[in-house]
Amino acid sequence: MRNRFLIRPSLIFRMRLLIASALLLLSPLLQAELLSLRGDPAPGALLIGQAVPGARVWLNEKPLRVSQSGYFLFGFGRDDSGERLLRIEADGRHLERLITLTSRQWNIQRVDGVPARTVTPPPEELERIRAEAALVRKARETDSDLEFFHHDFVWPASGRISGVYGSQRIYNGKPGNPHLGVDIAAPTGSPVIAPAAGIVTLVHEDMFYSGGTLVIDHGFGLSSTFIHLHSVLVKEGQQIRQGDLIAEIGASGRATGPHLDWRMNWYQERLDPQWFMGGMESGQVKAGSR
Fold first, then answer.
1. How far separated are the first and last CA of the chain, in Å rounded?
2. Which fold has domain 9-100?
3. Which burial class, exposed, middle or buried, applies to 266 when counting CB atoms under 10 A from its CB (0-12, 13-18, 19+)?
């Protein structure tokens, strides 16, 4: 006979989330003392927090890196949903905060009658594509102690937003990879500046898909990637400041016209730069603006 008082593990976790929500309402002073958190939780979002120095932080039981000054960060991918439990311990005190992701709608387009050769790369290029993808993955796995990630970012280029994060095309009934950056349309040769300080971890002049490619590490797993570049003006290992000229906009790789594709990652988690910047779905942006 089954024990009718047995509580399933999933219910236990759910009860813990409810208790965390109740404690949050009952202890605003404790919350203010232990935690500040900026960012809107949603698919593609980056959240940056600060706890008291010496604190330990977990997200759904996964430990997060915390700087000496108490800063930490975490992010969500395009297909993430639901709730996460943020837990902080400091000076013998505990804080649990429930993070609920708001839903987002993606722009899905169906395109039929596309020649197969333009959708699937030729077999002779597959080895090159895999090797280039490995270089980008390695750069994005950089886990440095830099703390530029919690400074304010600026837009890296001026122009019209022509492509948004999360959009996807279905070619001949086969879903293509979602677009995981924000596109800024501008003439070839237009300047690209660093949105935040960091160290250059990858420079490649001509990748199959992304053409001229540049990756900058901002610290604690956060990186910016810039692709389809006409030229890259910095070198690997170079330390750069916010606003430094780093590249020129182009149409290299698989691009239909000149634009900057700016991408952000928390390690391998693909983030939405436009959401992070609090941005609109369309319109003009200006390099150096927040």
1. 63
2. Immunoglobulin-like (2.60.40)
3. buried
Question: Tens digit of pLDDT for each residue in 92-151?
Answer: 888 999 999 999 999 887 766 655 655 678 888 899 999 999 999 999 999 999 999 999
Q: What is the DSSP letter of 149?
A: G
What SS3 string covers 105-126? CCCEEEECCCCHHHHCCCHHHH
Question: What gap in Å lies between CA 88 and CA 96, rounded to an integer?
Answer: 6
Q: Rounded distance, CA 175 to CA 69, Å? A: 44
Q: Say if 9-100 and 108-285 have the same CATH topology.
A: no
Higher-scoring residue by pLDDT: 113, 202: 202
Which residues, 6 or more positions from 124, have their beta carbon under 8 angstroms from its beta carbon? none
The rounded distance, in Å, linking the Cα atoms of 208 and 217 is 22
CATH architecture entry for 108-285: Distorted Sandwich (2.70)
Going by C-alpha positions, the residue among 289, 283, 290 that lies closest to residue 159 is 283
Question: Domain residue spans in the chain?
Answer: 9-100, 108-285
